[in-house]
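Need a sequence for this fold. Nothing fancy.
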């Protein structure tokens, strides 16, 4: 059956471009369009689309407020169409499945890249499990724990926890966990990979971890420009320092490095240190950055203890790399089916024997900490 899509965009020119391209695909049917959120609210019950493409910045009711009103009653997969703007992360937090960056018409192939990505993400969204954020009167969801206390030796983080972190801290039960030993911190590297649904899933894991965590390296499928903003967002909310990786960054306890968009990130050894190598390269497993590239480098180059975590996403990127990590002695965790937005990458990893244990998004942090404690 064809995927029925409703296109929501206030720009007539851009709306027509999206409609024309999506309609050219044999497995997609554009059932209609809406010129704003109010128009969309009227047409959704009539047209019954499988997926919405939604412009984030619209006059009147913007995309974020629209999602907050729509999804609690109509849990419809939504793919955001956004410029380079922080508001995309607020929309993802409100329940959107994924996003595509609007093309820069002055850059060669930008339009083709946009449409290729849009089609893939519409297809992924059609199979996605919509996550409807829980709401309450002045309280946060019970699944959102407090950020653990930062030990004195890790208080050099440059950016303090923001309002979201303080809100979690005030309303949820703290995670009781003794500090990890210096030996564990210095002798372990943690790799994490995610795709569709992963921006919020990775946040769910990181915000449950203390600042005194072994060095982490993370590949999240995301366009260039957005990875820096994403890292800044995580850094405001989480206890450890989080930043976009730069070539030559040394991996150390209390730091999580996010692979930069449009670059492949690998872990290499340099003397007594491990560092990241970030460089432009061809797509691997269909992606740049690729989770397979990161995991393969950890399996090959890291001689100390290693942990691999594979989370929600379409396809199989990271599955083969995680298998190599496990074969090289790593402890590996796969996100379980029930908590995945798209149970693709973790499913393939589990089916080929790459996963030591599966856990829900909310429990991955505790599984990781219990393993490190042992």
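Here you go.
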């Amino acid at each position: 059956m064809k995927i029925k899509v409703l296109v929501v965009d206030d720009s007539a020119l851009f709306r027509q471009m999206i409609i024309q391209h999506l309609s050219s695909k044999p497995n997609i049917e554009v059932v209609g369009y809406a010129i704003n959120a109010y128009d969309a609210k009227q047409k959704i019950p009539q047209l019954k689309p499988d997926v919405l493409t939604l412009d984030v910045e619209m006059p009147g009711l913007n995309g974020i407020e629209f999602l907050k009103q729509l999804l609690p009653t109509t849990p419809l997969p939504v793919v955001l169409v956004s410029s380079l703007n922080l508001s995309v992360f607020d929309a993802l937090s409100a329940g959107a499945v994924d996003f595509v960056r609007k093309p820069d018409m002055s850059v060669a192939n930008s339009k083709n890249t946009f449409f290729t990505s849009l089609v893939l993400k519409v297809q992924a969204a059609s199979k996605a499990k919509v996550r409807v954020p829980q709401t309450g009167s002045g309280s946060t969801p019970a699944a959102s724990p407090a950020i653990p206390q930062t030990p004195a030796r890790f208080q050099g983080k440059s950016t303090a926890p923001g309002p979201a972190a303080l809100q979690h801290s005030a309303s949820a039960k703290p995670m009781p966990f003794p500090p990890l030993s210096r030996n564990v911190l210095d002798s372990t590297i943690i790799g994490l990979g995610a795709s569709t649904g992963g921006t919020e899933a990775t946040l769910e894991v990181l915000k449950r971890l203390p600042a005194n965590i072994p060095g982490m390296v993370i590949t999240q499928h995301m366009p260039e420009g957005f990875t820096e903003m994403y890292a800044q967002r995580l850094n405001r909310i989480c206890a450890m320092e989080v930043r976009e990786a730069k070539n030559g960054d040394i991996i150390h306890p209390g730091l999580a490095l996010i692979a930069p968009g449009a670059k492949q990130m690998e872990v290499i050894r340099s003397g007594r240190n491990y560092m990241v190598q970030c460089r432009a390269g061809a797509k691997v497993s269909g992606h740049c950055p690729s989770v397979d590239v990161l995991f393969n480098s950890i399996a090959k180059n890291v001689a100390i203890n290693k942990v691999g975590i594979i989370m929600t996403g379409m396809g199989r990127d990271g599955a083969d790399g995680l298998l190599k990590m496990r074969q090289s002695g790593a402890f590996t965790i796969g996100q379980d089916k029930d908590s995945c937005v798209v149970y693709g990458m973790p499913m393939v990893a589990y089916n080929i024997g790459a996963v030591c244990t599966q856990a829900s998004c909310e429990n991955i942090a505790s599984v990781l900490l219990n393993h490190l404690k042992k």
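For context: The radius of gyration is 20 Å.
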